[in-house]
Design goal:
The structure holds two protein chains of two kinds. Chain A contains no helices and twelve strands. By secondary structure, chain A is mainly beta. In chain A, β5 and β6 form a beta hairpin. Chain A is globular, with a radius of gyration of 14 Å. Chain B is elongated. The chains are: A mainly beta, B mainly beta.
């Protein structure tokens, strides 16, 4: 079974600074997808960024980018120019690329605080 | 494109009752998954439906069931409610992108409180 580990329960960053959230996963599969979701106080889960395991290039979405290290099974999220609206819980998630099931396996989350 | 919608948003039930939650996926998405989120257990997968068939099931008791209709709308039912069923229930719809990846988007959730 796949597992996802987020070892940082809480992180803090100053506005306009850069922060990196860590995620490691364990799988025996070679085809899979990785995601970062943001959950603000409203509890709405928002897709931040996704990475296909077969792509070597790291995904980027505006101020959000990932460092995907397939051999190390590491998938960290970098937030640049942090804004107050980035404050939220961030979840790393794994989805198998084998078969057709849509099940996501989540990490325990990292609470990000953004300070002035 | 409208997002995933869930109804109701908030629900208070008494132990022993049953409850039905509804989820309407993004137009064109045929897969609907359900998750339970609690402070103690985090986000746990309940089940997934695709084209009216349950395609995958998590490790939950049989009191938790679901179904999907021909228009891809899904319902989740919990019978004989227990205090531990108090949680945020999230629905997600999924589809393959033209680029070969998957997109999976969540609804706002239904907050269930069992008293």
């Amino acid at each position: 079974a796949q597992t996802v580990t987020q070892s940082q329960p809480e992180m803090s960053v100053q506005e306009a600074e850069t922060v990196t959230l860590s995620c490691t996963y364990d799988t025996s599969e070679s085809d899979y997808y990785l995601f970062w979701y943001k959950q603000p106080p409203s509890r709405q889960m928002i897709l931040v960024i996704r990475q296909e395991a077969y792509k070597q290039q790291n995904a980027t979405e505006n101020r959000f980018s990932v460092n995907f290290q397939k051999a190390a099974k590491s998938f960290s999220l970098k937030i640049s120019d942090s804004q107050l609206g980035d404050a939220a819980m961030y979840f790393c998630a794994y989805r198998s690329g084998t078969g057709t099931a849509s099940k996501l396996t989540f990490g325990t989350g990292t609470r990000l605080q953004v300070t002035l | 494109k409208a997002g995933v919608t869930q109804t109701p948003r908030y629900l208070i039930k008494t132990r022993g009752q049953q409850v039905t939650l509804s989820c309407s996926p993004i137009s064109g998405h045929r897969s609907v998954s359900w998750y339970q989120q609690t402070p103690g257990q985090g986000l746990q997968f309940l089940f997934e439906y695709f084209s009216e068939t349950q395609r995958n099931k998590g490790n939950f008791p049989g009191r938790f069931s679901g179904r999907q209709f021909s228009n891809s709308r899904s319902e989740m039912n919990v019978s004989t409610l227990e205090l531990g069923d108090s949680a945020l229930y999230l629905c997600a719809s999924s589809a393959r992108t033209s680029g070969g990846s998957y997109e999976q988007y969540f609804g706002p959730g239904t907050r269930l409180t069992v008293t």
